[in-house]
User: Fold this.
Amino acid sequence: MLIERVRLRGVLDSRAHPTVEADLQLAGQEGHGRGSCPVAIAPGRRERRRGLRTGALGAELDQGATARLVHSALHGRRVSGQREFDAVLRALDDEHALGADVTLALSLAFARAAALHGRLHLLDWLVGQNGSPPRQVPRLLVNAFSGGIHARGAAASFQQIMTIPLGESLAEDIRTALSVHSGLEEALGDARLSASSGFLVGGRSTSEQLALLAAVLERRGLRGGVGLGVDVAAEHLAVDGGYRFEGGVHDSAGFGALLLRLAGDHGLSYVEDPFDPADTDAWHTFTPRLGAIGARVVGDDLFASDARRVEAGPAHAVLLKPSQAGTVSATLDAASAAASAGLRTVVSHRSGETEDTSICDLAVAVGADHIKIGGPRRGDRIAKYNRFLRLLESPLLAGLPRPPVHPEENQHVPCQ
Ligand code: PGA
Ligand code: ZN
Assistant:
């Protein structure tokens, strides 16, 4: 495949922060592939960095020094496929610190251009790169409450409280997500909605939020059909000597006990980033304990979507954020490292998203158990719900099973 032309552009994410979009055209091709990179408010300290070109909008980005480097490395270059293209990007990034926002946007643009070239859908291209057919249709993690660094004035709280619809089909799960969300809006009243995010911001304790969710599920007749999960995002709660949480500071053992209690009391089946990535012993102690009550520990900032960091032991599952990995191939590598280590995978959005919906295709391609795409509000999130509704028409998804409802049915990490 001969790369004819590449163009970088500054676009806005859902919080109106500038990010990178790329268009890429292969020789002999009408049209181009396009990709963009989402933005995190406070990225984990282990992930690949974004470039520092926040001001550039539109074509301004295509005229800067980074674009000149990209043009001279890519224009007229022949590559055999995604892997080789991504290797070129990685080498450029290592040498010139392009940033994961530039490399991911380009990598996704190439994936779409290559799919177009082969008259394939993006999903088919990604499945081809991954080397094995999709094996299941992921379950949604639907954000109900935002806290932590995502909510002003509520920093010492979990970053997300989520529902997990457990239906037979993804379409049914989306209907459930809509019902839960409108049930929450009804219960809270419009005044308590955060107009800017569309998320429901609490001003309540975690226990109160979980109890409110349970009451909404009860009222909507959804009690047995929806699981509950949290993203603790503990890296952002860590202070000297422990973790800040709801007015107190808890040492690691105390925080673990508190999380176990919450999980038991509210029937949580999913706990993401319970500790700081450096708090290794705490992860290793906590994971089998949470596993023993039928819930799963997921590592986000812990593994930073980096294949070299992925290992069994500290968590049951690996969160995959393409913008942490930096390219499509690096994301697929992290997914296969997870599979080799016997870990499950969860594909995730970032808090600032664009209209790019490739995480949906990626989640199906790698056979993820879950995908986090936020609550069913706002264009950037709805675009992902709609992408799934279209993907469900793909022959590749016909007859595929859903992930098991009870995590313990598929627990790989032995309890100690
Ligand atoms: P982030 O959080 O984009 O702020 O890192 C997203 C998430 O973990 O859901
Ligand atoms: Zn997270």
Remarks:
- The chain has twelve helices and 15 strands.
- The longest strand covers residues 3-12.
